[in-house]
Amino acid sequence: MNRVLRHAVLYGMMWASVLVVLGGVGTLTGYVVLRGAPALGGALFFGDAPPLAAILGEAPVWEGIWPACAGTICLVGLTMALALFPGIGCGIYLAEFASGAAARRIRTALDILAGTPSIVMGLSGFALILLLRRTILPQANTSLLLAAGCLALLVLPVLVSVTCEALESLPQELRLTALALGFTRRQMAWKVLLPAAGRGIMGGVVLAVGRAAEDTAVIMLTGVVANAGLPAGISETFEALPFTVFYTAAQYQTQDELMRGFGAALVLLALAALLLALARLLDAGARHRWRRGGSV
Amino acid sequence: MSFLPAGTQRYPHRLFAGNGEGAGWLLPLAAGIAMAGVLFMVLMIVVSALPALGQSGGGSPFTLEWQPYQGRFGILPMLAGSLALALFAIMLGFPVAFGVCAWLLAVGEGRRLLACGLRGVIRFMTAIPTVVYGFAAVFLLAPLIREGVGGTGMCLLTAGLVLALLIVPTMVLVLEAGFLPRMEALCPGGLALGFSRLELFTLFVVRGGRSVLVNAALLGFGRAVGDTLIGLMLAGNSPQFPGGLLESLRTLTAHMAMATANEVGGAAHLSLFAAGFLLLVLNIGISLAVRRIGGPKR
Questions:
Q1: Measured between CA atoms, how close is B58 to chain A, in angstroms?
Q2: Domain range for residue B205?
Q3: Mean pLDDT value across residues B231-255
Q4: Which positions in chain A touch B100 (Cβ < 8 Å)?
Q5: Is B8 inside a domain boundary?
Q6: In B, which residues are within 8 Å of A117 by CB distance?
Q7: 10-residue stretch averages of pLDDT, chain A, 296 residues long
Q8: Cβ-based neighbour number of residue B253 at 10 Å
Q9: Three-class SS of residue B245?
Q10: Where do the DSSP E strands lie in chain B?
């Protein structure tokens, strides 16, 4: 009896947890989808401006989220340009070449970085600007480049750990074969392992893009503003999609603005879902490629 | 005469000299840049916070009052706010995460489709932008709390509920990664002895896996303390000590976001860096603790 009762209570708790999570996420995302869907369309992005002219930057967009989208695209592109080499390079080094002590130190540093709140990374960028203003560059200001640099710090641990995992999950026979064929370790890394792990690493890159696109806290301290128009250069302030969503929630004046906020939130959510799906697809492909017939 | 096919000469990469067994210079350079980035961030925060840490008297950040126009820059209320909100979120979120993990390991085996879907949702939750959670909650949950429970709706309760949902996937993933291998090792034999999956889980897997529980809680706590948007959008942001579930509070992270936005100037900036320093120290402590316990396997 006791056992039956205890099991009933445990089962109840487990089912309740599952339902609470599914219900909570379902309600919040469903609400965004429901309220955001009517706003979707050309007018959401470009307002009254003609789309082509708006994309080319010839017509200013007043009532649309295109400048924010363009800002996010530039920001993510610049972030990845800054983060890809150190991230993937460090991952390869860690998986293939680093000695035990060095690997431990690098992993500790990356663990610390991965655990650091994103706003603290933004703060380090803000501190850099204050320092520059006091010393060599009195006119220094927060900007696209600074935000991208801080975001690069944010995605660095993701890139390193995914690269590392992709390399380490390759079958041992691949290494043995390569070495038996007379490859040096370096040749093996560049010519055999890296191409073999390519899809897994790409999956990590896509995940990192998602992280960079959604983060709001970092850019709040490093140069995002509500009304900048299209990004004008890497030393200028900029708009970004997640900040538009945040700003709307805090400062909206009219129902139209609120609608645009929901539209922007939905676009951001769809972007996140799309990137996640892409990352999973790449990852699944990478796993499938090295699976043997029969066993998993 | 060579029997090697083309392309397998010993030194195909001009970039590298040497015997080809070391890492060359390109990869160490990449690792060096990455490490320099970490060092730069920590140094920037510590150096900027030093003047604030050394300050004493009424303008010191480690006092109880935030009245910037009267020269009082205490951030202790915000520290208390951060801790209260994170602890509340953990108290709500941890049992739920544990329940979900137990369900996946003990019940999900018999319901493949639902288990697969649930895993997918948990993965998806890690990718949902925080700001979207916050945005939806501002217009959905906050009015609900305001009308159903009382207060303004912008309070510890609202922020805690959403934050709990935010940290659930982190904890579920850590718990599952820790428990799944143990469960798999026990399963065929244990089932043959007449234990149910749930019994195996509660009697053996969890008992022997305390460190996994602690790790999950620590990582969830770190995530909760470090989150900016939920606190900023939903907790009300009054710079006061957290008083109750329906009272407004301000977290350290939200404080940092606000203090840079409203350029109050010198001493306010000092308190900002003190707040950043506190957060950094707290999270470094958590990272090192997780590492010591034997964190998520790489």
A1: 24
A2: 66-293
A3: 88
A4: 14, 17-18, 21
A5: no
A6: 225-228, 253, 279, 283
A7: 82 93 95 91 80 77 86 94 95 90 91 92 90 82 90 95 91 89 88 90 93 92 84 85 91 88 94 92 79 49
A8: 29
A9: coil
A10: 66-67, 72-73
**Cβ-defined contact of A120 to B16 (cutoff 8 Å):** no
Q: How many domains does chain B fold into?
A: 1
- The residue ranges of every structural domain in chain A are 62-289
Whether B164 is covered by a domain: the verdict is yes
pLDDT one-digit tens code per residue, B100-156: 999 999 888 778 899 999 999 999 999 999 999 999 999 999 999 999 888 888 999
Q: State chain B's mean pLDDT as an integer.
A: 84
The yes/no answer to whether this complex scores an ipTM above 0.95 is: no
CATH number of A62-289: 1.10.3720.10
For residue B119, being part of any structural domain is answered with yes
Q: What is the CATH number of the domain that holds B212?
A: 1.10.3720.10
Q: What's the pLDDT tens digit per position in B159-168?
A: 999 999 999 9
Determine the pLDDT at residue A274: 94
Contact map slice: A 200-229 vs B, CB within 8 A: 210, 213-214, 216-217, 220-221
The two tokens of residue B24 are 């060359």
Q: Are the C-beta atoms of residues A115 and B41 closer than 8 Å to each other?
A: no
**A20, A123, A268 member nearest B256 (Cβ):** A123
| Residue B19 touches partner A, C-beta closer than 8 Å | yes
> Comparing C-alpha atoms, which of A208, A244, A207 is closest to residue B132?
A244
Q: Rounded distance, CA A97 to CA B288, Å? A: 24
Q: How many Å from the N-terminal Cα to the C-terminal Cα in chain B? A: 45
The shortest C-alpha distance from A53 to chain B (Å) reads 30
Pick the closest to residue B218 from B167, B177, B252, B183 (CA basis).
B167
- CA–CA separation, B9 vs A77, rounded Å? 37
Report yes or no: B15 and A189 within 8 Å, Cβ to Cβ: no
Residue B152, chain A, CB below 8 Å: the answer is: no
The residue whose two tokens read 């935000």 is: A147
Please indicate, yes or no, if residue B298 is contained in any of the structural domains: no
User: Is pLDDT of B7 > 60?
Assistant: no
CA B94 and chain centroid, separation: 13
Say if A121 is an interface residue toward chain B (CB within 8 Å): yes
